[in-house]
Amino acid sequence: xxxxxxxxxxxxxxxxxxxxxxxxxxxxxxxxxxxxxxxxxxxxxxxxxxxxxxxxxxxxxxxxxxxxxxxxxxxxxxxxxxxxxxxxxxxxxxxxxxxxxxxxxxxxxxxxxxxxxxxxxxxxxxxxxxxxxxxxxxxxxxxxxxxxxxxxxxxxxxxxxxxxxxxxxxxxxxxxxxxxxxxxxxxxxxxxxxxxxxxxxxxxxxxxxxxxxxxxxxxxxxxxxxxxxxxxxxxxxxxxxxxxxxxxxxxxxxxxxxxx
Amino acid sequence: xxxxxxxxxxxxxxxxxxxxxxxxxxxxxxxxxxxxxxxxxxxxxxxxxxxxxxxxxxxxxxxxxxxxxxxxxxxxxxxxxxxxxxxxxxxxxxxxxxxxxxxxxxxxxxxxxxxxxxxxxxxxxxxxxxxxxxxxxxxxxxxxxxxxxxxxxxxxxxxxxxxxxxxxxxxxxxxxxxxxxxxxxxxxxxxxxxxxxxxxxxxxxxxxxxxxxxxxxxxxxxxxxxxxxxxxxxxxxxxxxxxxxxxxxxxxxxxxxxxxxxxxxxxxxxxxxxxxxxxxxxxxxxxxxxxxxxxxxxxxxxxxxxxxxxxxxxxxxxxxxxxxxxxxxxxxxxxxxxxxxxxxxxxxxxxxxx
Lengths: 260, 354
Description:
The structure holds 2 protein chains of 2 kinds. Chain A is an alpha/beta fold. Chain A has 2 domains: 1-87 and 178-260, P-loop containing nucleotide triphosphate hydrolases (Rossmann fold); 97-162, no CATH class. Chain A is 38% helix and 23% strand. Chain A contains 10 helices and 10 strands. In chain A, the strands form 2 sheets. Chain A has a 6-stranded mixed beta sheet, sandwiched between helices. A 4-stranded antiparallel beta sheet of chain A has the order 2-1-4-5, with helices on one face. Chain A is globular and about 65 Å long. The N and C termini of chain A lie far apart (38 Å). Chain B is mainly alpha-helical. Chain B has a domain at 42-287. Chain B is 72% helix and 5% strand. Chain B has 14 helices and 5 strands. Chain B has helices at residues 3-29, 35-60, 68-85, 93-119, 124-143, 189-207, 210-220, 222-227, 232-255, 265-268, 270-283, 288-304, 312-328, 330-353; strands spanning 146-150, 153-157, 171-175, 180-181, 260-261. The longest helix of chain B has 27 residues, at 3-29. The interface between A and B is large, with 43 and 30 residues.
């Protein structure tokens, strides 16, 4: 990361983001700045509003106030599919794969907006269909290879072991060619070995794809291992943010997690 | 990647339909075809088309629709109406039938789109209830519709033929509950099979394409599909209206196999919709070949068993149960795959030996 050069526009800049459900302020004046290429962590106790922030960023919820700038472009209030096309892709806390589709087709579905042919060209099997499908296959396999899934390309997604399903979800998100990748508890349900492998993969994705990554995680080993900066949420509000080691040693953070 | 396997699977399905056609042709030429079976041939094709098209909505899109007979009804009446209207303008029955098929499919497709816009916002049971209602509404609206034509053009009424106020040159084409009469019976078994092949071509190719993946991704996980930039509304409507259009086409085929077309509960009621759904569920959701087999077996069976009188429905029920087990029970599916593996294994072993 070139910090010494002229200051670039940050990849994500969120100002004063709030949403309430009924009387509950789920997220209250949330601010964050994520530079390009950063690996950023969003942590906090259960119910702090972390996933709600993801849902706001990806247009699942419309914020009551605040603005979201992606690479300098205001994407506040846009629809989920528009935001995906603008360059934010995500994974889910509880895995959401296309269970009945093959591993390969899961990724190919995500290439939908990048490799196009019309429905009619598809039905009539015109030359463009074969050409584009071939491109899609090649691209999808390339991505699967990164996650060591290429051998299982024809498995039904639901038949993959748990750890691989998580990886496939990341591969699928990457297939939409995002600028910013949101990972919602990628290590949830993984054993220490799988978590260690996942950390390697996340780091690799950042370097290989030049990706900016924002992740939610409870596994502190993973967070302290790969995140460069952290934001801590508690009861919908930012408790503190800054460099990982500083934040994790902050008294208030320890109190929020463990109580007084 | 997967293309070869899919091509083989689709080839089997097409081959099965063509083989069925060939067998019937041979039976017909050698005089082994009973008149009972002969009368069943066009309905068999029609039910197969309906089952495949409904499978697109239920199996591929994953939405439960109970109004399929309504779309078939729309296609049947618009097709028959066209054929009767154009009698003088286009003397060729074949050409009229051909254009009627296109028109019937188009009308049903447009209605599928219009109905789909409000209806596809619902899920599960609610969607089933509303589509059921739409099917009944369509049938009942056609039942009270009178359309006639005289020198000054078309006349329309929802009361009776007289209130259209036509002059002496007037001809009533759609006669309310009496329906449309005098449609030429142009539908043949060969045309039916060709239409079934066309339906298969459209549905199978749609399934295994960019569009099909988008549709199936919505079925498997709507939220994830949205998150990777799939336009949910667009693809839902597309699947629903293509399904409706194909049902409309089957309706036109049906209309041209009868001299009198009436919108009765027997023809286009919800029972018909449920019957088609039974074919789809028994054949396996998303399994087009299964849909065809189920449609053919379950349509032909009650007729074939007529000689057994009292035991007819008993055997029908037993076959239903066996088919359900064979298609849906996990153990049966496991057993099938084991058998298939063995066959495949023997094949490769044979190749190696050679």
